[in-house]
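Subject: sequence -> structure tokens, single chain

Hey, anyone have a minute? Need the predicted structure for the following. Not urgent.
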Amino acid sequence: MTPEEALRNILSLVDGSDEMEDVHALQILLQTVKTLAEKGLGRSE
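Reply:
Had a minute. Here:
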């Protein structure tokens, strides 16, 4: 995944989080964003 792809995915997830009220779902969202950032924005593999 390129950094650009990771950023697009993160932005999509964040945009969709506005209406989320389930705390557990928000925790999963944050973990997903963290994983995307680590995999897509870190060093090239």
